[in-house]
Amino acid sequence: MWIPKTEDELKFDEKKREKNARFSGLFFFFFIPVITTLQNKFIGTQAYRGAPLESTLTWTQILPTLPNLFFISSIGGILSYLAFRKFNEFTTQVCLKCGKLKRFKKNENCDCGGKLRLLNEMKWIDNSEPNQDKE
Question: Which pTM was predicted?
Answer without folding.
Answer: 0.62
